[in-house]
Amino acid sequence: MPTITRTIITPIVTEQTSAAYQDRGEYTFRVHPEATKTHIRKAIEELFAVKVTGVWTSNHRGKDRRVGQVKGRRPHWKKAIVTLAQGDSIDIFEA
Length: 95
Fold this sequence. Notes:
Shape: globular
Number of strands: 6
Helix content: 25-40%
CATH class: Alpha Beta
CATH architecture: 2-Layer Sandwich
Number of domains: 1
C-alpha cells in the first residue's frame, strides 16, 4: 500500500472540476491505483488539514496509442472525487 504522500498523485484541474468545487465543494485528484477510499480520506485530511465528508473513486483504462507501426498503451489510472465539510477548502485549487 502506498504511503500518505504517494497516495495523492496530482490534482485534476479542468473547467468541469473547477465548476464542481465552486458549486458543490468537490475536489478531484489522480490517486495511486491501489489506494482505497479510507486511505484517500486519511491522506487528504492529513495533507490539507480539512474534514472529508465523501469520497468517490473510479478506475480509468489507459488509451491505446499508435506511433507508426508500433502499438502501445498508456497506463491505467484511478481518479478520486472528494467532498469537503462546509467551510473547508483546499488552496491549490483557488490559485
